[in-house]
Amino acid sequence: MLILVLYHLCLRIDAALCARIEKLGYDKDHHTLDVLIKGGPWVKVPVSPFVWYAVQTLIEDRAASFRAARRVSLGHNRSHACAVAFP
Fold this sequence. Notes:
- By secondary structure, the chain is α+β, with helices and mostly antiparallel strands.
- It has one domain (2-85).
- It is 59% helix and 18% strand.
- It contains three helices and three strands; from the N terminus they run ααβββα.
């Protein structure tokens, strides 16, 4: 994913590593990413549809994994709590 972002968005490595999901946006009919470039200023970089789709897929996969892990964790805690409360 890092190589994809570096190549398609023409970013320096430090700018790509500092990029955050919260900085994804939409401006003037284009998807954008706010990045901190060398020297300190934040700039809006247009994100191609190919990269946008790849990032969205990655975010959805991570969110689904997190939700599944959370569900298992909560289910385990509930059954343990019921066993303690109602022996």
